[in-house]
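Hey,
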Amino acid sequence: MGATAIKNTNQTRESFDNDEETNRAILNSLLAVLKTRDADTYDHSKRTVKVSLLLGRECGLDLKEMRSLEFGALLHDIGKIGVPDNVLRKPGKLNDFEWAIMRRHPDFGEEILRGLSCFAEARTIVAQHHEKWDGSGYPLGLRGEEIALSARVLFVADAFDAMTSDRVYRLARSYEEAIAELDSCAGTQFDSRVVAAFHRFPREDWERLTRRI
């Protein structure tokens, strides 16, 4: 390789490293806002990303897709900063009107990330992480492979952590109960292939990954 080619390669690598550093700084700033707004949602996002990445590798995502999945999982609930306190922090189940507001958080999240080109793929994951395999999800009612695979992976990871976490209106479900729910909703809410990937790891892995932080 000639001197000019080596110089160009080094410049490209330096540019990538600088871009990555900038992207991580933006990501950490957004997460700091989320943590300040709602620490429980922040902790949930940190746990969910670990489960998502394990599932993503098992589902065959490449390195670029895994990076987008990491960012998307960390930011999937960033739109909740746009949900009013009386809904976000309500100590009980939401009524229909409040639930309609809560269901807008994927749209809020997509809007927050829209001007950030470095999060273009992650933005799709954020926008689609409540879409369901049978088309009954929100906000767009996408179905099957219309939903990005990374979003389908995140949906399973998100649901598992939500089910195994305490809420103000209910206690956490057991590991067995959460697995039974994933299985019963495979092919309707969840992509069956992602649920099958979940089963290829022992219980100890999931308990380690979702340990309360």
